[in-house]
Amino acid sequence: MNTTKLKQIFTQYKILALLLATAAIWAFFSFKTDGDFTSARNLSNLMRQMSITGILACGMVFVIVAGEIDLSIGSLLGLLGGVAAILDVTHHMALPLGIGLVLLAGLAFGFLNGFLTAYAGIPSFIVGLGGMLAYRGILLGVTHGETISPVSDDMQVLAQGYLPPALGIALGVGLFALAAVLALRSRAALARHNLPVPAAWRGIVRVLVTGVVLAAFVSTLNGYEGIPYPVLVLLVLLGVFSYIANQTVFGRRIYAVGSNMEATRLSGINVRAVKLWIFGIMGLMCALAGLINTARLAAGSPSAGTSAELDVIAACFIGGTSMRGGAGTVHGALVGALVMASLDNGMSMLDVDTYWQMIVKGLILTLAVWIDVATRTGRR
Q1: pLDDT tens-digit profile of 149-204?
Q2: CB burial class (10 A; 0-12, 13-18, 19+) of residue 332?
Q3: CATH code of domain 15-164+226-374
Q4: Which secondary structure element, helix H or strand E, spans residue 213, and what is its range?
Q5: pTM for the whole structure
Q6: Where is 163: in which H helix or E strand?
Q7: CB contact set of 48 (below 8 Å; sequence gap of 6+)
Q8: For 85, phi and psi rounded to 5 degrees?
Q9: What's the CA dihedral at 238, 259, 319, 181 to 10 degrees?
């Protein structure tokens, strides 16, 4: 089998390979921890932990697909989480109003980054680097370098609450039904346009595998206290961002901008407006992640979000998002986030030294980018 054929196979089944790698990581850590890693309690904590990286990865996929980068997201997460804590603890603001203000602030900061990149012509790398320093400085200023705590019980529920087991089962059944309907609609659409329709057994197997995964997911989390609220938020975002990417004109324009920006501009698409909006969405995701992080810690910390941008970018690259732009999926980035969270969680349980954790994650990021380069040699 020649090299080109191997590249095609790997590209086609990249997510499957990544899921198998995740299973291998889980098996290794489960063996080393005598099964504690795969206990219902730890997996619930793991899912809650990866949800913050996953939320940020949803926005970062669009940024990278469009050929840009945002290094300020960790600092912006910390700033907006700190603002949420101040509004809650110091000003005793009603939770819905506080959440609304933080989300609006995130959107505004995102638009600022997008304006500087798309309209002022400053490279996004520099805008992100400047934002990383500036937002962290503002955070230290507004918190006076002190932890703001404790946040109200209502806010803590955002990250520490659980969906009742019965509703979790209903959610799993609903998602399975949705998967079956989407599979049928996909086959009908192919037939309607006189395109080749895959064998029926493939679709059946895919839906059945989805059902098994959903059953394992729901039963495992229900084995502790239920599905954590942050995981529910992440599932909603997965659906929304996947729909935007695959079913909307805006989503197609994002991929077009990343594939060939000049050709996209000459076709009449407002490239700068597209970039402005993807950075605005990224800021909104920073606000949401900041709220959940503050609720999870029950405090606003001046060090919150430190180096979060590295985990998020790594998750996107591991999940198949191309560093050159024009290619990437939201579900792939979330699998990448799961890989990063699994490594963090497992190595922490084994008391692996921090420097080794950094080395391992750095090597995995480098490997992911190398794979992208090796499998896309024909791209420009």
Answers
A1: 888 888 898 888 888 888 989 988 888 888 888 888 877 777 777 777 777 777 78
A2: buried
A3: 1.10.3470
A4: helix 200-222
A5: 0.88
A6: strand 162-163
A7: 159, 228, 230, 231, 296
A8: -65, -40
A9: 40
- 135 contacts 76 by C-beta, under 8 angstroms: yes
User: What value does the mean pLDDT take over residues 348-357?
Assistant: 85
What DSSP string describes 41-99?
HHHHHHHHHHHHHHHHHHHHHHHHHTT---TTHHHHHHHHHHHHHIIIIIS---HHHHH
Taking the C-alpha atoms of residue 282 and residue 59, their distance in angstroms, rounded to an integer, is 5
CA 346 vs CA 26, 46, 183, 275: distances in Å: 8, 9, 35, 37
CB-count exposure of residue 329 (10 Å: 0-12, 13-18, 19+): buried
Mean pLDDT of 101-114: 94
Distance separating alpha carbons of residues 22 and 341, to the nearest angstrom: 10
Q: Token digits for 16? A: 């499957």
Q: In 122-197, which residue ranges form alpha helices assigned H by DSSP? A: 124-143, 153-160, 165-192
The proportion of the chain whose per-residue pLDDT surpasses 70, expressed as a percent, equals 94
Q: Where are the domains of the chain?
A: 15-164+226-374
- Distance between CA 355 and CA 358 in Å, rounded? 5
> Tell me, what amino acid is at 102?
V
Neighbouring residues of 57: CB distance < 8 A, sequence distance ≥ 6 = 312, 315, 316, 319, 330, 333, 334, 336, 337
| pLDDT tens-digit map of 45-91 | 888 888 999 999 999 999 999 888 989 999 999 999 999 999 989 88
Respond yes or no on whether the N-terminal peptide bond of residue 228 is cis (omega within 30° of 0): no
The number of residues making up the chain comes to 380
Model pLDDT, residue 12: 56
User: What six digits make up the tokens of 336?
Assistant: 């990448």
Cα(277)–Cα(279) distance, integer angstroms = 5
- Beta-bridged to residue 228, according to DSSP, are 162
How far are the Cα atoms of 20, 116, 217, 244 from residue 315, in angstroms, in the given order?
16, 26, 21, 20
